[in-house]
Amino acid sequence: MENNIETLFNxxxxxxxxxxxTFIVNxxxxxxxxxxxxxxxxxxxxxxxxxxxxxxxxxxxxxxxxIENELQILQCTKTITSYSDxxxxxxxxxxxxxxxxxxxxxxxxxxxxGKEVVNAIQSGHIKYFALYRGKPRQYIDSYAEIININxxxxxxxxxxxxxxxxxxxxxxxxxxxxxxxMKGRKISLEKLLTSTEIDTL
Length: 201
Fold this sequence. Notes:
By secondary structure, the protein is α+β, with helices and mostly antiparallel strands. The protein folds into two domains: 5-66, no CATH class; 80-200, ph1033 like domains (ph1033 like fold), CATH 3.10.590. The chain has helices spanning 5-11, 29-46, 52-66, 68-76, 98-101, 115-122, 189-194; strands spanning 86-92, 107-111, 126-133, 139-151, 157-172, 185-188. A six-stranded mixed sheet has the order 2-5-4-3-1-6. The protein is elongated and about 80 Å long. It starts with a helix and ends in a 7-residue tail after the last helix.
């Protein structure tokens, strides 16, 4: 990421033929004076001149790079109507290979659900499904919309899932006890998308 003073001087001399667009930036007096003070300091330290336009351009570039993760979250959630929607989390063993045989094929079968949870899913309050993957991975890395649930002859339930969506960052166990990942745990979509550690869910 380009975000240092050296970059200002490396970029200030534009190559001929570079496509540029011009726009006017309005800023309050305090911010304007602070920018000028910074540019004077740069000139004193470097002995070189940096224009306001170059400084602003670089500041915008750095800002966009720094919010890249937030933009990924927005991309993941562009079809989501509410961050308050709930996600139900189950666990899967990597040894059993159920992640590949079931989840990757957009279903999850033979789970026990209480009446309240069934009602919450059917009413649309619990809208999403996620899996905590056991050793050696020990993280949640994706989620999917719940299309519907079907009751099986044995009294358990099967989930039919929509397209699997990757999380911006895997949510890792990070050293806490695996028992903290409860089967059927419910969390908000906002927490799932913005967390990186299980214990913050």
